[in-house]
Amino acid sequence: MFRLKYVKYESRKEAARPTPLLTPRRTVQVAKEMRNYNISLLGLSETRWLQAGQMRLASGETLLYSRRTENSAPHSQGVALMLAPEAQRALSGWAPVCPCRLITTKFETKKSNIKLNVIHCYVPTNDDEDEKKHDFYQLQAVLDKRREKDIKILMGDFNANMGSDNTGYDVMGTQGMGKMNENGEHLADL
Q1: Which domains does the chain carry?
Q2: Contact in structure between 119 and 43 (CB atoms under 8 Å)
Q3: Can you give the pTM of this predicted structure?
Q4: How many CA atoms lie within 13 A of 146 on its CB side?
Q5: How far is 65 from 46, CA to CA, in rounded Å?
Q6: Which residues are in the Endonuclease/exonuclease/phosphatase domain (predicted)?
Q7: Contacts of 84 (CB under 8 A, 6+ apart)
Q8: How many helices (H) and strands (E) does the chain have?
Q9: Tally of CA atoms within 13 A in the half-sphere of 130 that contains its CB
């Protein structure tokens, strides 16, 4: 089994740039940093690729990535997970759930009857259309499908401001700044 250490890496550049931001060259750089920090599982947001699949890098890491479904889709959004070889060996399944915004993985653990479910997401911003936000929040259904005894890790870019007022919520502290926005409410209600 592998000892899980994970972080989120955002690949942000100019919004007008029409090429994927997680290019093969950038992928090599990210994999190198992943090894330098001894990270087994790395969540990537805003990859901006137009396909879904699994790719094995020459350095041994595996990249699982989501896609845009429309043929003429702009290079925007997208999520991926980069796995170190030890995480790849424990991987028992994965799927892009909400195209370009949600990817789920399942890993074997030392306890044969318990699985580790990692869900990486990229939430629409507060300014996005309500339909996009509604489509994304099938996330709750994804979480509900997981067995209660399995371990669940939800990570990603939630585009949320949690604020410092935690009245009515048992899931956050008072260390946030500003006021809670709509995405913050969705995250706290999750």
Answers
A1: 6-159 (3.60.10.10)
A2: no
A3: 0.77
A4: 21
A5: 11
A6: 19-166
A7: 2, 34, 35, 39, 40, 41, 60, 61
A8: 5, 9
A9: 0
